[in-house]
Amino acid sequence: MGLMIRYFRYWLFVLAVLISTFAAAKPQYINPIPLAQLINTPVSKVNEQTFELPVITWGADINTIYANGSQSITSSNSLFSSYGLKFRLSRNDKFSDQLTNYLSGKTPYLRGTLGMVNAASDLLASNPSVTPIIIHQLSWSSGGDALVVKPSVRTVADLKGKTIALQAYGPHVDYMGAVLKDAGLTPDDVTIKWLPDLTGTNNSPASALYENDVDAVFVILPDALALTSGGAVGTGSEDSVKGAKILMSTKTANRVIADVYAVRADYFNSHRSDVMNFVKALNSATDEVKVLFNNANAKNAKLTPLLSYSADLLLDSPDAIEDIKGLYADAEHLDINANKQLFSDMAYPRNITKVSNEIQTTLKRLSLTSASTLPQLANWDFTQLGADIEFNNKSRFNSERVASVVAKKQQQNSLADGELFSFEVAFQPNQNSFNSSLYQTEFKRVIELASTYGGAVITVEGHSDPLKYLRSKKKGETGVVLNRIKQSNRNISLSRAQSVKQSVLTFATDQGIALDASQFALVGHGFGSPKTGMCGNEPCAPATESEWRSNMRVVFRIIQLEAESDVFQPL
């Protein structure tokens, strides 16, 4: 399947036509201003007749369509109807238009990413009746969005000083902020070019990558595939950009873009039971649609109309059935137990409050909000909503396959290929244990990266000092003795890597955080990659104590293995 992400045949056909047009056109960049200055719609009461329920072109919205009976107006035999609800579905991918409808009372609901809702916080803070209350997280993006780069960008840290293009007010502002932060960068370290459209025009990020002065773009998956010759490396033909590649998709950064529903405070307070029933219906729909898609090859009276209407509403063609299946696959659909964790587990590194704070920091840096208030969260009793178990952190990786891929990369000296971030932990001579009290800062960073990039593999790479080996060689020890020292150093460095990994997992457990142990792969380099460098085929001798100590380290490397589809466990 290449990159473990699906080809949207319908969109790729459309994009091929569009890209051939906008490849030769110059994108028109904009200077975004805070939404509070852009939108001045007066606040009106909610029209309590059948009102619009916004959906957007995203896989999780297929669940909403199903809950509505797979048609525009809520059908009598639908989940929404069974809870006494009635809506008129309306696709609205332009968030500013959604905000206008929300303020005017055309609908009490907002549908967007968590970043979009946060971007509207200043606009909506001026009137308590329209304060957005987040009521449900539908999904995480898990493959549908990507960072595409030119050859000069090998890791995220290489974005420093580069130019990035992305849509203003869109879903990728949070994505950009997260990856820059995790590389130790801020928006001030890059040049940003803003575009009004997300896809399909000459004023979208995909079109900007054709410009010589643009080094990277945040785009939706179909654009990423078109720009990179189907997800490989752009050849420059068939409208791809020569040398362009996907540095990472949200298959790797799978805890960055959160899709949510929010509701007006006045409506929530006066219709709490209706809003709760809305969430219950969505949760039931999520469960039932999973069953339908897991048996998509079987004839089912509910699946056929769902696919057809979803394709029509979201992709403007009732025949785009395979593309709807791909759209669905690029989202991780969340049930009520996952929502319980996101709303109420304050230890969880990617809960809604922590992610909102991260987003607000980015928006404030970009002068798009004052970051003075966060969206409120519904104070649900999750037992009433049907939550019945603690969140189960399942293993996502095939540990044996990961170990095989990493071992091959080590043999080929190519572990840096696919690297997104890396940092190291120093240790003392003869040190074999790693107390969390001494390494708390480093361990917290590992936990944050493991939680944010849940689709990435984290290698824990032990390195050792070559001085004993070099002294023995200078003494004229035999090859047998020297090889024994080499192997001993590899074993010791692997043991240290194991000790560090276990210390991180234990530290996380003590903090109330469950990490996925299968995400970590151990590497024992011995002294094969010393910081002091190689002198021919042997490690260079350290000249100072500082150089000597620099070789004693454990390196954490976050790498994406999306091309290795079999490293992931089937869901």
Would you write up a description of this structure?
The protein is α/β, with parallel strands linked by helices and 571 residues long. It contains 21 helices and 18 strands. Strands 3, 4, 10, 11 and 12 form a 5-stranded mixed sheet that branches. A 5-stranded mixed sheet has the order 7-6-8-5-9. Helix 1 crosses helix 10, helix 8 packs across helix 16 (352-365) and helix 18 (440-452) crosses helix 20. It is elongated and about 90 Å long. The model is unreliable at 1-14 (pLDDT under 50).
Beta-strand segment tally: 18
User: Ranges with pLDDT <50 over ≥5 residues?
Assistant: 1-14
Question: What class would the helix/strand composition place it in?
Answer: alpha/beta
Give the helix tally.
21
Largest sheet: 5 strands, mixed
Query: Helix amount, in percent?
Result: 25-40%
Task: Indicate the radius of gyration in whole angstroms.
Answer: 26 Å
Strand residue percentage: 15-25%
CA-based shape: elongated
The span between the termini is 16 Å
- Please tell me the overall pLDDT: 91
